[in-house]
Design a protein that fits this description.
Strand order of the largest sheet: 2-1-3-5-4
Number of helices: 24
Strand content: under 5%
Largest sheet: 5 strands, mixed
Order of helices and strands: HHHHHHHHHHHHHHHHHHHHHEHEHEHEE
Shape: globular
Structural class: mainly alpha
Radius of gyration: 24 Å
Amino acid sequence: MNLIKKFKKQEKYTRYSILIIILFSVIVLALTSIHHVSGDGCWYVPVGKFMAENQNFPLFEPLGRDEPFWSPPLYHVLVAIVYGIFGAVNNSLGNFAVKFVSPIFGILSLIFTFLVVKKLVNSKIAFYSILFLAFIPIFIGYSVLSYVESTLIFFVILSVYFLINDKIILAGIAAGLSILAKYNGVFIIPVLLYIVYKKYSKKQFYKNGLIIAILPLIVASPWLIRNWILLGNPIWPFLNFIFNGYESMSYGSLNFSNLFHYGLLLFTYLGIFGVPDGNFHLFSTFKLPYSEVLLPIWLVGTFIFIIPLIVGFFNKSQKNKNIKNNLRTLIIGALAIWIISYLILFLLYVPNVGWAVSRIILPAFPALAVFWAFGYEKLNNSKLSKLFVILITLIIAGFIFTEFVKFGFAANQWNFYKEDFDWVKSNTPQKSIFLVSGQCIPYNIQRTSLFSTDENLNKADYIWVNQNFKLDKRSVLDESSLNSIESENYKEVYSNKKTGTLIYSTKP
């Protein structure tokens, strides 16, 4: 009852924001309950489980990738803690519980975005900001997926929250933890330094700026030193051509033509609006009913939803109107540096890795949300305000519906192979070794797996073959490997004509 009274005492836009946060929480928790771990999550989760079971960090153990474990470990540590608690009851409960690490941090990110914007601007702009953030599909998606992104975003926002509340050391620690979630966290440091420069006197700037510049690196240094010692590169596998570190699946070159590839803007845009990795080829790979009608409607909806962001960027007078005069330069400058900082990361990442990288700019979305809020308020005060509010409401409902369809469809695709996965878990020894490339089949069969090579073939007990496996194409054997396996006349121990899965035993 006290909570209801406290809720009613809040001013209007704070109440609206609480309702948005509750709605977002319900959505991402519901999506998480139906979500089937996939993509990079098929590597992150087994690493966390390994850590829970062995109380140690892996290095060269085969956990789904043909490379050493290098990733900043904060998310994996959290998965290990959750799995250690719930996995002690049973394995299935542990596997289910670890999926909720991401939504918890997604929810916290939304809460602290509201608190930051409310303090710097006002509750109305804070409400509009989280309206954008809560329902932009990329933020919903990465608040559900078992990826590191929601953990990264939370600590990035937390560092800003602590700094604007004059908690310098806590801000530095939070920034350091963001780096321990993902290397990308370091790109929030220029934003923090700018805030310190504008917020404090010259004497205080040198002291506080030094803390902000050094403390995050001190917090992250144990992992960076570990990678430097073991892999020869503190940020392995990135920029490995500079450090000359351990040679494996590293990103060892720069291809600047990626910056001019037609797919860069297309993949980035589609990724922001929920297409996995922005890969438009998925529209033809997986046939959806009524896609020829629904896809154009969805595209138009994305264009309309982005209009307030464009208006917010170019409507300077509106921005000034909503910001307290003594903080105007600080806020606009900090938001601009926040966006530019992650845009620079994006431009560095594309030549070194590739152009399907929408999630790289995800930590900048709280700043983008504020500009969207400025634009939305401007449009909300125009003659077309009622029509625009109705359109945005319908588009948000469409985004939510699309996310449920997407996650439900993906789960059904994985469940199609459940009989295959269950057979492996029920009919092969737990310590048996499978020859299968990719990271998601090993996750689903819960067996040690080695990538398909002639050397590994001699180590494997079983071979997984499915040449039509669309969910992880890296598991599909090349023609040479398939011919080599078939020439050995291994004993076929399992066959499923419906799924196309064959399993061979390499032992007599």
